[in-house]
Amino acid sequence: MKKLLLLSLAGLLLATTACKREQRSQSTGWGYNSQEWGGFEKLPNYKGQITGPNLVLIEGGTFNMGQTEEDVMKDYRAAPRRQSLASFYMDETEVTNIDWLEYLYYLRRVYPSMPQVHLQALPDTLAWLDELSYNTPYVENYLRHPAYEDYPVVGVTWLQANEFCKWRSDRVNEMLLIEQGKIDPTSIEGQQGENTFSTGSYLSGIYQAQPGPKPAVNPATGEERAVRFEDGIMLPEYQLPTEAQWEFAALALLGNQSAARDENITDRRIYPWDGTTVRYPQHGRYQGAIVANFKRGRGDYMGMSGALNDNASITAPVRSYVPNDFGLYNMAGNVNEWVRDVYRPTTSLTLEDNNELNSFRGNVFTQVERNSNGTPVGVDSIGRLKYKPLDENEIKDRRNFTKSNVINYGDGDIESRLNYGDSKLNNETKHMYQFGKHSLISDKARVYKGGSWADRAYWLSPGQRRFLDEDKASATIGFRCSMLRVGSPSGNRFKGGNQIKTRKKRTKRKF
After folding, report:
1. Where is the Sulfatase-modifying factor enzyme-like domain positioned along the sequence (predicted)?
2. Burial tier of 240 (Cβ tally within 10 Å: 0-12, 13-18, 19+)
3. Global pTM?
């Protein structure tokens, strides 16, 4: 009898322990990852977003965006305003020539029957030419010679930079799946044309990859399956940074946070470093050295022979000079950098309260093209899902936005009383100035920032902004990529929100 009682108690203890270990929904009480409870899957111990190749975590926050020093030209194209940003990742360096050559190699290998794909990705090497300069050697040598492989790629348009970001996103996610054994690495060999890995086509089931040695498994049934978005393995897209992200990352004001680690910044910066000089201030070997690659004065691109000031007549290797307090190189000088925003001189003046978080001009809201049953219609000629702008019927009852293309919001649409050359506008607005016709600004104008090897120090300030059409290139413009940070803004060691633990008050017993 005693033995039977002990066995019963042991069984009860095991059952209680199993119930405690089993994860259950706080909403319904149903068990996760259990076939008898319906089979809903939940990751048991998600560790957080990993850091992609060459990326640095930029913890977001609030800052004064825009030109805060004297506006000498009085053009008000970068009026200061308070702005907050969610955390994100930024490339430690500018994208290099060797990065671009890898991209070109992939396009030739995977799309042999579509040579136009490779041709459209070629940088404009003729951007080096000038009527009264002997820059011809750079046309042949700068992109392909190994001496320049760690130099920033130039001569790429905004459109080409965006295509590179998409390609990079897919290659990084494919690499992650292969490294974790989720798909077979031999699947790379058979990819061509439409039958090419892209994140969207894989997650939607269009691209069928061969399982690797450690395929994803349904914990409820034990059956092998493809990796899902909910598995948290794949990273968000690489993208061009928004203008706000780029400027925040360039200033790196966390380096000037007060000793009390409160919300006070001790000093505003003109450049991505402290002080009003472009020379290294600390005593020692590098004291007085130029800390960025720019044109110091008329005809002075690198200083005197035997005493070169920035040691670069044109660009320099991307890990040259001093990184800022986020660890980012060349956020001033070397090359200007494309950002994602459409240029408008008055963007900062049209901000309203709801634009004080993650401000960006250039939204065209899209969605995947789907069949009537909800499945994607397929992929385009290079293997990516097809997207389309949201149509009027899909957004007619919305309150947060009324159009899918809001590039002109508050500055160029009918509501703002500015005419961009649309013949449908009534005569009352015809007298207004027309961007793209009476000026160089149009919906194709994109912002670039940072200053270059050919610019004076004035343009090194992160608040400065200029523009160029998205399909034009320059020998002074390159780019770097950014990525969204999902989850906790401060990294994987911290949870979101203030995790304040308090002691529960004990109630006195009444006798």
Report:
1. 53-359
2. buried
3. 0.89
As for how many domains the chain has, the answer is 1
How far is the first Cα of the chain from the last one, in angstroms, to the nearest whole number? Answer: 40
Q: What is the CATH number of the domain that holds 304?
A: 3.90.1580.10
CB atoms within 10 A of CB 381: 13
Which tens digit of pLDDT belongs to each residue from 388-401?
Answer: 999 888 898 898 88
pLDDT in tens, 451-492: 999 999 999 999 999 999 999 999 999 999 999 999 999 989
Does residue 365 come out as left (phi exceeding 0), alpha (psi in the -120 to 50 range) or beta? beta
Q: How far apart are CA 389 and CA 391, in angstroms?
A: 6
Pick from 39, 147, 164: nearest CA to 99: 164
CB 470 within 8 A of CB 158: yes
Q: What CA–CA distance (Å, rounded) separates 65 from 75? A: 16
Residue 454 lies in a domain: yes
Does the residue 462 lie in any domain?
yes
CB–CB of 166/156 below 8 Å? no
Contact 331, 250 (CB under 8 A): yes
Write the single-letter amino acid at 359. S
Domain of residue 140: give its range. 55-180+233-362+443-484
Question: Does 221 map to a domain?
Answer: no
* Residue 493, pLDDT score: 87
293 phi/psi in degrees, rounded to 5: -100, 105
Helix (H) and strand (E) counts for the chain? Answer: 8, 16
Tokens of 440: 């160089």
**Pairing label, strands 366-368, 387-389:** antiparallel
| Angstrom distance (rounded) from CA 240 to CA 242 | 7
Amino acid at 75: D
- For residues 466 and 255, what is the distance between their CA atoms, to the nearest angstrom? 27
Structure letter (DSSP) for residue 255: G
Judge contact between 418 and 424, C-beta under 8 A: no
Q: Classify 297 as helix, strand or coil.
A: strand
Asked if pLDDT for residue 116 goes beyond 90, the answer is: yes
Q: Taking Cα atoms as reference points, which of 263, 383, 318 lies closest to residue 94?
A: 318
Amino acid type, 465 = R
162 within a domain of the structure (yes/no): yes
3-state secondary structure of 443: coil
Are 334 and 315 within 8 A, CB to CB? yes
H/E run at residue 238: strand 238-239
- Evaluate if residue 73 carries a pLDDT over 70: no
Q: How large is the angle between the packed helices 158-179 and 97-110, nearest 10 degrees? A: 80
Q: Which residue has the tokens 């080096």?
A: 128
